[in-house]
């Protein structure tokens, strides 16, 4: 059995962030807040350091470049590492925003597009997010609503609860609301087009908006999905498995273990494990809430012993 590769998170301080990632997961940082903890990342603006094993001390980017086969056969088409996985703590509302798809992003940003999904870890009572529109708008109506400040009358506001899953296809208008703690799995892209930011000031200046690009890429119809996972939980021995969502870019599941559980990692994809709750031993490695592990494609059996809930992501 291969030892899973443990990754050191990268922390991001942002105006809307809180400190639940410090209090709930024990993350240590001198930043005033940890808005985002990048738990699986290989980017110039955020690169995990490997914390254990033969690659300890190496950047995750360096490790992947030297060991391309670890991505699996589904990963061979990507020039860069394909996913970015985060914890997000929204103490205040995030800007209302949208992301481009691959085609638009290649032309205008020289990057991948950004499809993502959110798994709600916890939230304040009454917390809500913005997920698409509450009625269909034309592009002209969308632009006019921004210009005359009626934009928020047309957004779809959704009350959230722990365990909800929201699939944010590229082009879907969205915003995380205050009081929400979540895990995010996304394409490896950080391109964001802000549509509205509550007239918020940073260093005495309003944050930049990207209205015209947002109008170019936004799908101005109500969403067809809600916050339900793809399927009901399935009991498998000492574990409960739940498929959250799946798309062409990634697949997300949760697995809750109370005892012993194992699964196989084949040649098709690596596996990311994000520990949400509890603690266990994973292939001989201690795992506690807040840990992030990368398991190479074609690693074979992964054995988990303990009481733990994990978010499992693959290509």
Q: What features would you describe in this structure?
A:
By secondary structure, this protein is mainly β. Helices cover 11% and strands 42% of the residues. The protein is built from five helices and 24 strands. The strands form six sheets. Strands 1, 6, 18, 19, 20, 21, 22, 23 and 24 form a nine-stranded antiparallel sheet that branches. Helix 4 (139-147) packs antiparallel against helix 5 (211-217). The longest helix has 9 residues, at 139-147. It starts with a strand and ends with a strand. 42% of the residues are buried. The model has no long low-confidence stretch (mean pLDDT 96).
Terminal CA distance: 21 Å
What is the H/E string? EEHEEEEHEEHEEHEEEEEEEHEEEEEEE
What is the helix content? 10-25%
Shape: globular
Number of helical segments?
5
How large is the radius of gyration? 19 Å
Instruction: Please report which band the strand proportion falls in: under 5%, 5-15%, 15-25%, 25-35%, 35-45% or over 45%.
Output: 35-45%
Mean pLDDT: 96
How many distinct beta strands? Answer: 24
The class by helix and strand makeup works out as: mainly beta
Largest pleated sheet: 9 strands, antiparallel
Pick out the low-confidence regions: none
């Amino acid at each position: 059995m291969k030892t899973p590769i443990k990754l050191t998170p990268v922390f991001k301080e942002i105006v809307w962030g809180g400190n639940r990632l410090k209090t709930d997961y024990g993350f240590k940082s001198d930043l005033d807040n940890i808005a985002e903890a990048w738990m699986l990342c290989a980017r110039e603006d955020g690169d995990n350091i490997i914390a254990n094993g033969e690659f300890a001390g190496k950047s995750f980017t360096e490790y992947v470049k030297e060991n391309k086969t670890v991505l699996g056969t589904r990963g061979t088409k990507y020039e860069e590492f394909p996913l970015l996985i985060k914890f997000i703590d929204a103490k205040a509302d995030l800007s209302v925003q949208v992301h481009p798809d691959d085609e638009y992003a290649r032309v205008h940003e020289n990057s991948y597009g950004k499809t993502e999904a959110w798994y709600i870890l916890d939230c304040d009572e009454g917390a809500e997010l913005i997920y698409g529109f509450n009625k269909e708008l034309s592009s002209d109506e969308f632009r006019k609503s921004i210009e005359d400040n009626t934009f928020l009358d047309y957004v779809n506001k959704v009350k959230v609860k722990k365990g909800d899953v929201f699939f944010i296809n590229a082009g879907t208008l969205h915003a995380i609301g205050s009081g929400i703690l979540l895990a995010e799995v996304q394409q490896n892209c950080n391109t964001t087009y802000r549509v509205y930011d509550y007239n918020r000031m940073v260093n005495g200046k309003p944050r930049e908006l990207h209205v015209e690009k947002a109008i170019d890429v936004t799908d101005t119809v109500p969403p067809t999905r809600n916050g339900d996972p793809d399927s009901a939980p399935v009991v498998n021995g000492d574990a409960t498995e739940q498929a959250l969502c799946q798309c062409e870019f990634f697949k997300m599941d949760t697995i809750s273990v109370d005892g012993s559980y194992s699964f196989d990692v084949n040649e098709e994809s690596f596996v990311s494990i994000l520990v949400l709750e509890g603690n266990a031993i994973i292939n001989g490695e201690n795992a506690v809430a807040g840990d992030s592990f990368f398991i190479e494609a074609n690693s074979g059996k992964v054995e988990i012993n303990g009481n733990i809930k994990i978010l499992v992501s693959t290509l």
